[in-house]
Specification:
- It is built from one helix and twelve strands.
- The chain is an all-beta fold.
- The strands form two sheets. The chain has a seven-stranded mixed sheet with strand order 1-3-5-11-10-9-8, with no helix packed on it.
- The longest helix is centred in the N-terminal third of the chain and has 4 residues, at about 45.
């Protein structure tokens, strides 16, 4: 399905947006928001999901390494290769970042840099927006 609203309500949920521009609502509990398509990243396969209620240090953003193929960090929580994640002040700073996953603190936008260690997004782009632009860090991600 495409462009769905997926509502986890209360409890610990796994919310998978997959294709389309989905709205993911975790509700109460510790939720996992899964970003990925199961195959190498293409904008048309993934869309841009909106996560409405991400709670830092409670919820996790799960990144599918089959989709985000430039990620070489160990599987599990966080990024074992520190340069793979960056939190930047504004959208202008995204283009200059050499991180694979770039979060914009002012907007809550999350980007994938398909150029890996080179600046610019290459064939990547925006993969999600976190409503309210919560302060997140590398420890809010899990690589699978």
């Amino acid at each position: 399905m495409f462009n769905e609203k997926i509502d986890g309500k209360n409890g610990n949920d796994i919310l998978i947006g997959a294709a389309g521009n989905d709205t993911l609502v975790g509700g109460g509990g510790a939720d996992d928001f899964v970003l990925g398509s199961g195959k190498a990243y293409k904008k048309k396969d993934l869309g841009i999901d909106t996560i409405t209620d991400f709670k830092r240090n409670v919820d996790d953003i799960i990144l599918d390494t089959d989709t985000f193929v430039t990620l070489k960090s160990d599987l599990g929580e966080g990024f074992s290769i520190k340069r793979e994640f960056a939190s930047v002040k504004n959208k202008k700073a995204v283009a200059g970042s050499v991180a694979d996953i770039v979060y914009v603190r002012s907007t809550g936008d999350l980007y994938y840099n398909a150029n890996s260690a080179l600046p610019g997004l290459g064939g990547g782009g925006k993969i999600a927006t976190l409503d309210g632009a919560p302060r997140i860090s590398a420890s809010d991600f899990v690589l699978e």
